[in-house]
Amino acid sequence: MRIDILTIFPEMFDGPFSHSIVKRAMDKKLVEIHLHDIREHATGKHRRVDDYPFGGGAGMVMMIEPVDRCLQALKARRTYDEII
């Protein structure tokens, strides 16, 4: 089984995936986990992936463009049974 994870913090997954039952599954070649940094698909000098809420107020939201570019790049290389 192959799992591709899109994230802006790929280093955050080092701990959980290098220990526990997931690590054992990876060692036995039962699962492949690939991390993809969404920032690599962002444009601009600072590789921004967040935007302001459209209705105003506090907080930030993810821009869809970098996420879509990352997903399209993956779909161009392979087919997926399911995308969540």
The termini sit apart by 15 Å
Q: According to CATH, what is the topology? A: Alpha/beta knot
Unreliable spans are none
Estimate nothing, just give the exact number of structural domains: 1
Gyration radius over CA: 15 Å
Second CATH tier, the architecture: 3-Layer(aba) Sandwich
Count of DSSP helices? 3
Average pLDDT score: 91
- Give a short account of the largest sheet: 2 strands, parallel
Name the structural class: alpha+beta
Order of helices and strands: EHHEEEH
- The CATH superfamily label reads SPOUT methyltransferase, trefoil knot domain
**Largest sheet, order of strands side by side?**
1-2
Task: Tell me what portion of residues adopts beta-strand conformation.
Answer: 15-25%
The CATH class assignment is Alpha Beta
Helix content: 25-40%
Count the E strands.
4
Q: How would you explain this protein's 3D organization?
A:
The chain has a single domain, classed as Alpha/beta knot (3-Layer(aba) Sandwich). Helices cover 31% and strands 19% of the residues. The protein contains three helices and four strands, in the order βααβββα. By secondary structure, the protein is of the alpha+beta class. It has a two-stranded parallel ribbon.
SSE arrangement:
Layout (H helix, E strand, L loop, with lengths): L1 E6 L6 H4 L2 H8 L4 E6 L12 E2 L9 E2 L1 H14 L7
Parallel strand pairs: 1-2
Antiparallel strand pairs: 3-4
Keywords:
single chain, 84 residues, alpha+beta, Alpha/beta knot, two-stranded parallel sheet, 4 strands, globular
Summarize the structure.
This protein has helices spanning 14-17, 20-27, 64-77; strands at residues 2-7, 32-37, 50-51, 61-62.
